[in-house]
Write a structure and sequence with these properties.
Order of helices and strands: HEEHEE
Strand order of the largest sheet: 1-2-4-3
Shape: globular
Number of domains: 1
Largest sheet: 4 strands, antiparallel
Distance between the termini: 16 Å
Structural class: alpha+beta
């Protein structure tokens, strides 16, 4: 329970979507999935490197989320980050 208090439920959602792959640490989910969108928004809010991507690459206009970040690289089931995912 202490872990939930420290990270909050949103932080735990973000952690549960992170996996280690041969490409490094990746986030699994799509911007069509409300829970994934919320978790990616928590990550982006905590990220010192977040920067909006070019207009043609933005998934949801005006929303601070990793799905809209210029450092996100698409994978089959999610994305990786060319910087580093922020600590939760």
């Amino acid at each position: 329970m202490e872990n939930v208090r420290q990270k909050g439920i949103q932080g735990l959602l973000s952690v549960n979507r992170m996996v280690e792959t041969d490409k490094g640490r990746c986030f699994i989910g799509s911007c069509d999935d409300g829970e994934a969108l919320q978790a990616a928004s928590v990550l982006a809010e905590r990220c010192p490197d977040f920067s909006f991507d070019v207009e043609d690459e933005v998934c949801i206009e005006g929303l601070t989320t990793c799905f809209n970040c210029r450092y996100r690289r698409w994978l089959e089931n999610g994305f990786s980050c060319t910087k580093e995912f922020p600590p939760l």
